[in-house]
Sequence to fold (167 residues):
Amino acid sequence: MPRGAAVIRYEGARGVVWRVKYADVDGRQVKETVGREADGVTRKHAEAALRERLVKVETRGWRKPAPTTFRDYSETWLDRAETKRGWKPGTVTATRNRLGHLNNAFGQVAVAAIRPRDVAAFIDDQLATFSAKTVHIHLNLLHDVLKSAVADELIPATRSVGWSGRR
Fold:
């Protein structure tokens, strides 16, 4: 294992959390949280995640991404989706309006910092104003954006995307 790479067991106020530490291709130290022990994450899971990160650094020249806000990333996502999917102007307008609701809630938050509890709070706020169907449409769009952020390596793939349905 490269010098400085490690699995860290952190005991915080909310329980035990497993983290990994390693250097990216530029030599910058990166620390990532793999998950909570209460959610079933073990040292073995953390070691596997560390091996995965080290392979990415070595084979693909992975760099720690700069913090990107949800608003900035959603605009990039919309431009790519419009081109890739060949959307009609009406679809682009409707999607832009829906992204506006998501940006009101998550716009200034870093994409990688959005947590399930944030999504649960968003759902509660939305249900006070919109129908369940509209909220579901917003959640599907949020899932698409976050799934793309995982593919673009802005969010570690070990994190779950979206809302798990548990509170």
About this structure: The chain has two domains: 6-60, 70-151. Confidence is low (pLDDT under 50) at residues 159-167. The radius of gyration is 18 Å.
